Amino acid sequence: MAELNSIIGLSPEIKALRALIKLVGPSDSTVLILGESGTGKELVAKALHGCSGRARSPFVPVNCGAIPRDLLESELFGHKKGSFTGAIADRKGRFQLADKGTLFLDEIGDMSMDLQVKLLRVLQERTVDPVGSLGSIPIDVRVIAATHQNIEELVEQGRFRKDLYFRLNIMPVEVSPLADRAQDIPILIDYFSKQKAKTKQAPISISQASMRLLIDYDWPGNVRELSNLVDRYTALYAQQEVDLHKVPASMVPSGIRKLMQGKDSENRASLHSPGKKLASRKLKHFEKHIFGGTGIKDQALVPTNLDTSIDEVQRVINLAQGGPDFPDEGVELKQHLLEIERRLIKEALSKAEGNVSKTARLLSLHRTTLIEKINKYGMH
Questions:
Q1: By three-state DSSP, how is residue 249 classified?
Q2: pLDDT tens across 205-235, in order?
Q3: Measured between alpha carbons, how far is residue 255 from residues 138, 189, 201, 213, 318 in Å?
Q4: What is the pLDDT of residue 372?
Q5: 135 pLDDT tier (thresholds 50, 70, 90)
Q6: Per-residue model confidence (pLDDT) at position 367
Q7: Statement: residue 172 has pLDDT above 70
Q8: Quick one: angle between helices 274-291 and 333-351, nearest 10?
Q9: Where are the alpha helices (DSSP H) in 90-240?
Q10: Res. 150 pLDDT band, cuts 50 70 90
């Protein structure tokens, strides 16, 4: 199970993922891997294959988004000589090449509707019909599919077949974005720096201040972006300690440059004024009641434009504590709480420039919970 060791990290998310791979791998059931681009979905597919009884047989990957639509059918199912212009010989498709092994269909959400119908038939019948063939060929293949898209939304939009989705989603496996498991970043940097160092050369290291920046960064390209960055700095600063403040600006991701420019430091300074401290304490106190947490994790990142929301928070707190200004006509408590929650989410989204992972951290929410709330309030 060497492939399982390529799933790097000590975060709860990665530990749970490795445990799930061990559980699901030996099964022959179809798996659907969900996760943002660059999170390592193919590594997960290889690990599932490595944990299965098919490990000694082929693992055949296909990127459904990279192969032209008119060639994908032939690529998957094969073709007979003369079946179309350029078909100068019989050719086996990826399903036949993966016989007794695993076929990995990456970016399944990009597959055209007509091919989805044919794929559904293959999964049901366990046979393939090569292009131009008059007969079917039996196959023994486990299918693992993956996508970075919200496939349930594709189904609702009529861009992905519901019956195929249910056929693929027998064993769903979700890979967390790197921003949700920041504690794995130093471990990944150490792993990649050793992997990319030339023979007999020491790996690069990262200065303490630079490591803090890398941990605070949102990593929109996830683990792939981190791997590429380590590769870049290994080429530029072999065997050295990397200080991002001394790296040419063009070699530093724009998001990290913003962190270096002290944008968050200015917000932190403004929060230290007496009025902002009081507002922050009120927000932190009330956030416990709304979200059931223990307060916002990084007070330096709390939105500062919250005057209206804070007034509302204070008013409801006063009412809850038996304040003298309870209106004669009463209040709709549930509606008050929903409105405050909506305002805080809106402010946090604005502060995070629309980044959902960062917004979730600002509000001490799980990312999936925040997405549900964003959908509930129509904040798309």
A1: helix
A2: 999 999 999 999 999 999 999 999 999 999 9
A3: 51, 18, 30, 10, 41
A4: 76
A5: confident
A6: 76
A7: yes
A8: 120
A9: 94-97, 113-125, 151-156, 162-168, 185-196, 208-216, 222-236
A10: very high
* Two structure tokens written together for 275: 């009025």
Structure tokens at 44: 């997960």
300, 267 Cβ separation under 8 angstroms = yes
| Cα 342 from Cα 379, distance rounded (Å) | 9
Are 8 and 184 in contact, with CB atoms under 8 Å apart? Answer: yes
Burial class (CB in 10 A: 0-12, 13-18, 19+), 200: exposed
Q: Does domain 180-261 have CATH number 1.20.1250.20?
A: no
Residue 271 pLDDT greater than 60, yes or no? no
pLDDT surpasses 70 at 3: yes
Is residue 229 a contact partner of residue 266, using CB atoms and an 8 Å limit? no
**Phi/psi of residue 107, nearest 5 degrees:** 55, 50
Please tell me which residue, 80 or 246, carries the higher pLDDT value. 246
> Which tokens is 161 given?
């077949």
Instruction: Say if residue 59's pLDDT is above 90.
Output: yes
Copy the structure tokens of residue 95: 């399903």
Each residue of 349-364: pLDDT tens digit? 888 888 888 888 888 8
Taking the alpha carbons at both ends of the chain, their separation in whole angstroms is 41
Residue owning tokens 């939105």: 303
Q: Where are the domains of the chain?
A: 2-176, 180-261, 273-376
Distances in Å between the Cα of 268 and the Cα atoms of 89, 158, 250, 299 are: 68, 46, 27, 8
Beta bridge partners of 146: 33
Separation between Cα atoms, residue 236 and residue 214, nearest integer Å: 18
- At residue 373, the pLDDT reads 85
- Which of 1.20.1060.10, 3.40.220.10, 2.60.120.600, 3.40.50.300 is the CATH number of 2-176? 3.40.50.300
Query: Position of tokens 């003298």?
Result: 324
CA-based nearest residue to 25, from 47, 3, 57, 58 = 47
Stated as kind and residue range, the H or E segment containing 323 is: none
Q: Is the pLDDT of residue 70 over 90?
A: no
Vertex 138, ends 133 and 144: CA angle to 5°?
A: 110
DSSP 299: G
Neighbouring-strand partners of residue 206: 242
